[in-house]
Amino acid sequence: MGATTQNLQQTADVLGLREALNLLTVQLCELLDALVMLTERSADVLMAGRTHGQQAVPIPFGFKVSIWMDAMLRHLERFQQLRPRLLTAMMGGAVGNFASLGEIGPAVQREVAKRLRLTPMPLPADPVAELVCLLGMLASTGSAVASEVARLMANEFGKVSEALGEGDVGSSTTPQKRNPKKSAAVIALSAQIRALVPLALEEKRSPFAWTSSGDA
Fold first, then answer.
1. Could you give phi then psi for residue 138, rounded to 5 degrees?
2. Cα 53 to Cα 64: distance, rounded to the nearest angstrom
3. 16 closest CA partner among 133, 120, 131
4. How far apart are CA 112 and CA 10, in angstroms?
5. How far apart are CA 75 and CA 29, in angstroms?
6. In the predicted model, is pLDDT for residue 5 greater than 90?
7. Which secondary structure element, helix H or strand E, spans residue 7, and what is its range?
8. Active-site residue list
9. How far apart are CA 14 and CA 72, in angstroms?
10. Count of H helices and E strands in the chain?
C-alpha cells in the first residue's frame, strides 16, 4: 500500500497513546474534583503565607489549594489542545510525500484516519516529544505540591498530614511520626518523568529520526 513500517508503528502507537490520554484526563478530572472540595472546605482556614520560606501575610489554606487547582486546570487544557496534533494517522511512505501512492495518497491517509478516529497528518512530524514535555510539566507541578505538603507536615508547621491507609504506620521505627511517604514517592517519580524530557527532545533533533530521513 506504500506505507512504511514507521507509518504503521507510529499510527498504532498513537492508538495506545489515545487510551493513555483518556485515562490521564479522567484522573486529572478526579484530582480537580478533590481540589475543589478541599478549596471550599478550607476557604476560611487561616495560615501564614510565606515567601522565600519566611512568613509574610496570612492567607486561607484554600487560597493555596486554589493555586494548585489552577495549575492542574491549565495542564488539562494543554492535554486537550495536544490531541489533534498527537492523535494522527500517517501513511506518507518512506519520506512522507506519498511517493508510492501518488495522487490518491492523501485520500488514503484521510480514510485510514477516519476509520481509526484520528486526524490525518498533513506533513511528517513528531508530536510525541510535545507529549513528553507536557508530562514533564505535569510532573513538575505534582512535585511542587508534594514538596509543599511534606514541608507543611513537619512538626514545626503541623498544617497538613497524609492520610494513613488501613494497616499503615507513619514510621516503622518511631510510631509518633507520620512520614510524608506519599509525597516522597511523588517527588521521586516526578524526577524520573522530567528526566525523559531531554531524551525526547534529543530524539526529535537526531539526524537518524524517522521524519523525512530518506530511509525507511
1. -60, -45
2. 14
3. 131
4. 13
5. 11
6. no
7. helix 5-41
8. 52, 171
9. 24
10. 6, 4
Long-range contacts of 2-5 (CB under 8 A, 24+ apart): 2/91, 2/93, 2/98, 2/99, 2/100, 2/101, 2/105, 2/108, 3/91, 3/92, 3/93, 4/93, 4/94, 4/216, 5/216
Summarised one tens digit per residue, pLDDT across range 73-107 is 999 999 999 999 999 998 888 888 888 888 898 99
Give exposure, 148-163, as e/b (b: 16+ Cβ within 10 Å).
bbbbbbeeeeeebebe
| CB of 112 closer than 8 Å to CB of 14 | no
Residue 94 DSSP symbol: S
Cβ-Cβ contacts under 8 Å for 74 (sequence gap 6 or more): none
Q: Which amino acid is at 40?
A: E
